[in-house]
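We append the chain.
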Amino acid sequence: MFTDSLVATMRAVGADLHSVEVKSAAGGFPSDVVETLSAFANGGGGTLILGLDESAGFTPAVGFDANKIRDALAGACADKMNPPLRLAIEIEEFESALVVRADVSELDPIAKPCFVEARGAYQGSFIRSGDGDRRLTHYEVTQLLANRTQPRSDLDVVEEAELDDLESSLVADLVERARRRSPRAFAELDDATSLLRLGAVARASGGVLRPTVGGLLALGVYPQQFFPQLFVSVVVLPGTRMGEQSPDGARFLDNQTITGPIPVMVLDAVAALIRNMRKAAIIRGISREDRYDYPLDVIRELVVNALMHRDYSPEARGAQVQIELYVDRLVVKSPGGLYGSISVDMLGSSGNVNTSRNHALAAILADLSLPGSRGESICENRGSGLPQVMESLRQAGMSPPTFDAAPGRLMVTVPQHALLSPDTVEWIGSLRQRHLTDSQHLALAMMRTTGRTTNTMLQAWGVAPVSAGQALRDLVIRGLAVSTGGRRYASYQLAASVPSPFDLQVNYAADEQNSRPPGIEMQRDAILQAIQAGHTTTRALSILLGVTHRTVARRIAELIEAGAIEPLGPRRSSKQSYRLVHKNGEK
């Protein structure tokens, strides 16, 4: 039973879980249950269990009236919450007693905040924090309410600024591109009127044209003269946690404050990270391509997204975009959280509705060239940025980013676990093979790090079956790989003449390996690679690998038992997903 496993976990840790709240309710319906309902609905959802005594080791509460509490909970959901919550409330038997369980789903973003009706939105809205509930701040509630309308903070007039505070070269580039894009709307207009039409300037008191917040940030000579905190901070840390020190006592290996207009901040932030990343080169014919710990287009896209979609309302103008480079991950933090109907599980997928908190700023940036580029726009403003991030990471053999969104903030984390790390790229270069394809780079990296690869494992990274087969056969012809297992269950390992240590991701017992058909091992390996590539649900794995849902579920159960992967949600969750468990214990 689902409740049994939850209680077993709570007994093991000696406390409630982040997504599970337990209350005794032996003396009647607890008044603070409504706070937990609000917190779960505003966050990622959760499970409420009434009738267990936490102080007695999560044992059934003496004197608990299950029917009475169930009816009281249903009434609270319908009458005390705004918007009302429609939950599946069940009475379950647990250790010869009855408990009440309710699973609370996260609300649609535009329906938030869920609050206690009698207290109002600003006093009655909560979010989960650890194993308890925390009241949302005034700013966090304001952000949730702002999701229901189109914010206009980027169109606010900066009364202290003048047109001379705009960089002439940036203005010229913007207006020229706007005239090429829409000659009918801009061809006959002077620069000032064009800027007015683009939302980069607006009429202030007395009819004087002055820069808007969005116009100043995109085109200003030095926007920080008016908004000192609207910059990008880049810190490079020596360990895996903030506060850890290097052997010589340094807390930061680098600490940069990036200022200027957004086009300049994007370039300078990327440059600061380049200075602090490892580099290796891949030879493509007669050209050389540098590879870093993180693809440069991924870094740039994340920085652009943070600056373009962050909150620029007056309450948030004291917060900067933060970039933190740890030894094992890259983190980008921005104020404002998600906007509109977008939820975390939608980020990075194609086909989503393109929403922008700062619609005028986004349009300006789409019409601006990236300095030093050959007319390349800073952004496309088509919702293609994060999907391209996902694709670039897959091509580099890297896991997709994780998104941690809460009211008022968004954090994007890109793990450094990579098949094509700079060390591996350097090793591939040492093989002195010309004209290797991207698929062959991935195949060699898999063979080096996991001991083998298969056609299906390459498919997990988006390589078409025919292309995967051609790539692998060519590696055999080149003398870099050998094939075993026959045509149907072909598995490829590095040839004996290619020295390279490897470390298998999952070390099954030898007798188990010998007793299982090779197809099962291939399915397991393919699922591991697919999860690392970002296909983390049973349905996604089934579609990608062309294997039945039932077979994928069976392989997932085996991998969980082997300690290779772990589930991220409750066992019965309709949105269940999985992640790898690496040998050093990191996720």
